[in-house]
Amino acid sequence: MRHVEVVMGIPMSVDVPAPPDRRCAELAVRTAFSRLRDADRRFSRFVPDSEVRRFDAGELRHEDLSPDLTEVLALADRAGKASGGAFSVRRPDGTLDTDGVVKGWAAQRAADVLIAAEVGAFCLNAGGDVVTRGEPVPGRGWRVGVRDPWDAHRFLAVVEQRDGAVATSGTYERGAHVWDGRTGATASGLASATVLAGDLVTADVLATSVLALGADGVAWASGHGASAVLAVTDDGRVLGDRAGLRLLGRPTAE
Hints:
By secondary structure, the chain is α+β, with helices and mostly antiparallel strands. The chain has helices at residues 22-43, 51-56, 67-82, 99-116, 200-213, 216-222; strands at residues 2-7, 10-15, 122-126, 129-133, 142-148, 151-161, 164-170, 190-197, 228-233, 238-239, 245-247. The protein has six helices and eleven strands. The chain has an eight-stranded antiparallel beta sheet with strand order 1-2-3-4-7-8-9-10. A hairpin with a 4-residue loop joins strand 9 (228-233) and strand 10.
C-alpha cells in the first residue's frame, strides 16, 4: 500500500509492502500523517498564529512552550554547540526558523507511529529525506537514490538499507537557503550534503550542519553520529565517508 500527501509544502509518502494487517497499517499511516500535519501547523513560519511565530514575537515565554517546541529548540541548541555555532535556527535577520530541525524530527515521529503499530517494513519519504525499516522484499533492503545536484534526472549514488535514515541538504531546489550561524553569511562551498544515520532527526540536522560548515563538515559529521556522509562541492567533486553508498560515477576526492 502507498499513501501520499503534501505536508509542509512538500510531497511526503509512505510505502508499506504487503502489510500483515492492512487495516492496522492504514490506521497507523493516517495517524502518522496527522502528526506531520500537526507539526506543520505548530512550527510553520508562514502561519501567523503558529507556536513558533508566537514565541518569536514574544507572545509566549519559554515556560509556556509545548513539550514539542521545547524539544526542537533543545535539539537545535545541541547542534549549534556541537558545530561550533555553524548550525543555527536564528536566521541572519534574527527571526526564528526551526526548519533545519523540524522536518526530520516530524518525519521520524511519524515513522515511530508506524513502528509502534508493528507495521513491519515501510519506507517514509519526506521530500527526499527517508526513513526505512525492514525489507520491501525478502533478502533486499530499501534502495534510496541520492540525486546529483547538477542533474535532476540522474542519481549520484544509491543507498541500500533496512533500518535507518537518509537526509540531504542542498542548494539545487531552494537555492542558497542555509546560512552559517557563525558569520550570518550564506553557506558556501558545497552544493549538497547527504548523511546516513540511525534516525532521521540525526541525519537531517547533520546534513544541514555539513552544508553550513562546508567541506570541513564531512569529517565532523562522521564523528557526530553519521554512519556515512556524501558531499558534492560547488565545483562538482565528491567528498566523504561513503560506507554503505554505491556511487554511480563522478570525480571523487577523499
